[in-house]
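Box 3.1 A note on notation
Throughout this textbook, protein chains are presented in two layers. The first layer is the amino acid sequence; the second is a token string describing backbone geometry. Keep the layers aligned when reading.
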Amino acid sequence: MEEGAGDLILLDERAIPGVQVEVRRLNKYFGEKHVLKDLDLRVEAGETFVIFGPSGCGKSVFLKHLCGLIRPDTGEILLDGEPVGSEAVRRFRLAMVFQSSALFNSLTVGGNVGLWLKEHRMCSPPEIARIVAEKLALVGMAGTERSRPSELSGGMRKRVAIARALAVNPHLILYDEPTAGLDPVLTEQVGQVIADLKRLQITALVVTHDLNLGFAVGDRLGMMHGGRLIETGPPEAIRATTNPIVRAFIHTQMKIVAR
């Protein structure tokens, strides 16, 4: 094991292990389509911030900017004051929970969760096994190391994907539609896992169209519409909003849930 590499598996010696995220006047075009428009956002370290809105409003595009998969045309994203893509920001670890879970069917559950640690030779095999067991227990999947993803339900695969994200001890977790395609029971289970993990004080950004999930897990929420965040606030403020666009979206979501 490389000297100092074991530090990765410990919680950072910071009051809050999460990282502050600041987005300043972010713009992105795809051809003539202006997808993100002067988007501004500040998420405090340890906060869980939920971005909701209709399909096609730019939520997932924004998430891909945060993890460096897409570069903005103008504007910047800062982690604890350092620009994403800079050498200084490399000390922060980011993890993403994909909408599809993105597990490898050729690997066991344990192999999926420990993959990054193994590939980067961060620690010994016994230590990887210990970390895998610990992270699976955190998401209610203890004892499933030898199972295959194909043997799991959709909700269980989502929880394994979250455990894999936790295995790198991230400063920031990005969730892309974490309950997409799940029935109401599984949606509630995955939402409970995300809510429970807030005690770790890792900064989290959750992109979703599911307002019930957003209200359940978010310290603050923001609605994206037309490439902008048109309103942000704690759940109670969003519920009581007078913004007609936000109110219409909430009303539509509640009607869907009631059916």
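Residues 57 and 226 are 5 Å apart (CA to CA). The chain has nine helices and ten strands.
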